[in-house]
Amino acid sequence: MKRSFEEEIKRRRTFGIISHPDAGKTTLTEKLLLFGGAIQEAGAVKSNKIKKGATSDFMEIERQRGISVATSVLAFDYQGVKINILDTPGHKDFAEDTYRTLTAVDSVIVVIDVAKGVEEQTEKLVQVCRMRKIPMLVFINKLDREGKDAFDLLDEVEQKLGLKVTPMSFPIGMGYEFKGIYNIWERNVRLFNNDNSRKLATETLQITDLSDPELEVHIGKTSAENLREELELTEGIYPEFDKEAYQKGDLQPVFFGSALNNFGVRELLDCFIEIAPMPRPKESNTRIVEPTEKKFTGFVFKIHANMDPKHRDRLAFIKIVSGTFERNKPYLHTRLGKNLKFSSPNAFFAEKKEIVDISYPGDIVGLHDTGNFKIGDTLTAGEKLEYKGIPSFSPEHFRYINNADPLKSKQLYKGIDQLMDEGVAQLFTLDFNGRKVIGTVGALQYEVIQYRLEHEYGAKCSYENLNVHKACWVVPKDEKSEEFKEFKRVKGKFLAKDKHDQLVFLADSPFSLQMTLEKYKNIDFHYSSEF
Ligand code: G4P
User: Fold this and answer.
1) Between 20 and 30 A from 109 (CA), which of 253, 365, 371, 518?
2) Tell me: the pLDDT tens digits for 425-479?
3) Domain 5-275 superfamily per CATH
4) Using a 6 Å cutoff on CB, does residue 196 contact ligand 1?
5) Cβ of 262 below 6 Å from ligand 1
């Protein structure tokens, strides 16, 4: 079917699924792919989870890296809508990857385990989405198990995640007593039977009027009465769904279901394609760019090193913001000020990638790169603009990195450079002695870096502990002020440059950070590199 440029944009939904590990992200993704006809059977999507206890099993890490290329973008068509699911690693040590991916999504689905409620990783990720006003939809999973009361959970979501919710469906019982779901959005009841996992269940009961005695026949008197009461209560407590408020990030619709049993997933998907936003405009350093603009712009949000050590090229993932991206056309790499052409841009489908001639806003293309790209780089059809940087947050761990094989220092520095471009960790160079410090979100990254330096670059490194509590990006109100000069003199040993040559203060304790903030009132300290 031939579609116009505008139609192509309108039919795209690019989103990420976020959750605390084990809430059911992989299972839900798989069920969405099943509905899209992109896979034929359950179990086809491999989990990109780092299994517990695999911390030093590098074959496992390599295997996971392989899987995570394959599942980076899962694209499929559902009822004429082009869906792009961007994979986000659940492991907390890779949270930084997830933050970056969140710069490329137009909305997210948050998965919560009915028994565990809101967990730590969910809190952190939702906070980032809230800051960026990303539209969020909540899926409360595992209703086939005993869990928390629906109202308590909705409360918890509001309080812990700082969201304003409105239920779009409501569970009828739970665990052994789980009878099904009332779909507030479509006004019908779907009955639960344990067989749903084997087929795509379609058994729905149309209930236009809740007082319909049919309800008793199917779910029993007590459940029917409870449901009526609960629904009356929800109407009193929660605002009505408002698409505009949702798309602005001010209201979050909530669904209940069981991904494993394929229950409540179709409802989620059907509602999602109707309400979720099409590709959104994006702010650059010069102006806001609309997706419908004819000229291409896009940015790199992820870089993946080739798994084959003989081919050192990398795959840079570009989110298309505006216009069309075409094969073999020259595009301007605005940071380098040079034109680049790509003869084999990859588009991603469920589990496979293919060379494509043309891609639209909302799509992700993978470009083979021999070292031109860094995370956050912008490509355009000629306009000199840069998309606002992808923020770095303060790492949690800091260690000196030393060269353990003096004959291989060139390889070591090249390796460190490239791994930092990929966003594996952050590099700081101390002002007073030039020593290099690697900052990471999780301890696992140190092992990954050491392993990859050795296997991909033939270099060896060792680490040395460094006591840093937090990194803050430093911006004086006046560079020439006495106060700033004094700060640099007194804190000299704790100052470093990040990879963009921005000044960073490495505070050694919460106390010293607090004292510094209080003392130097004319210096701004930022907790992320985007300010
Ligand atoms: P994640 O990607 O968010 O980390 O979670 P994943 O989908 O891997 O699910 C974590 C576990 O929860 C899996 O069990 C999965 O089968 C189970 N699960 C997911 N959805 C539901 C649900 O609706 N109901 C129930 N009862 N369980 C659910 P596992 O035993 O850890 O793994 P597996 O051996 O089944 O793959």
Assistant:
1) 365
2) 999 999 999 999 999 988 888 988 998 899 888 999 999 999 999 999 999 999 9
3) P-loop containing nucleotide triphosphate hydrolases (3.40.50.300)
4) no
5) no
